[in-house]
Amino acid sequence: LLRSSRVIDDLNHMASISPDNIGIAFICFSYKEREQQTAASVLCSLIHQLSSQLSTIPVLLESSYDKLSPLNKALISDEATAREVLLGILKAFKRVFFVFDALDEFDEEGQRQALIPIFHELGSSGASVFVTSRPYPLDIVHSFSATGGVVAITLAAQEEHLKIYI
């Protein structure tokens, strides 16, 4: 979380001094919240974060909202619709940055597998995607190592830091 927090702080600072329309959205995955965090809810959170940075509501978001049931206006539960809306919102920004922290803590039984291709799609759409994860979940390692344009940075505790801590 510390590294991601620094990235988010730096992005917010950059956006505050840039004349360009820059969107920033982030998700911090948590093992404790894996029941509540679904691919659709993650996408909806990203939609909410980006749309709140715009002065007007994108037409695609407004029309998707109008199609929702009157009993459940709070959440687009259809993952495909949420994906479509998110990709549409990207067009309202000159540049968009996504930060996903602790992807390895996201439920791997279907949810993570549904979300990883969307990360790739966001990157292919011109957004910058920053993902942190422990190095051992093989589905994550394989997914990102098979993709061009991915830079992997390995972080490890240094011996002198461990000595100070202990």
From TrEMBL:
InterPro entries: NPHP3-like_N, P-loop_NTPase. This is Nephrocystin 3-like N-terminal domain-containing protein. It comes from Morchella conica CCBAS932. Residues 4-134 form the Nephrocystin 3-like N-terminal domain. Keywords: Repeat. It comes from the Eukaryota. The lineage of its organism: Eukaryota, Fungi, Dikarya, Ascomycota, Pezizomycotina.
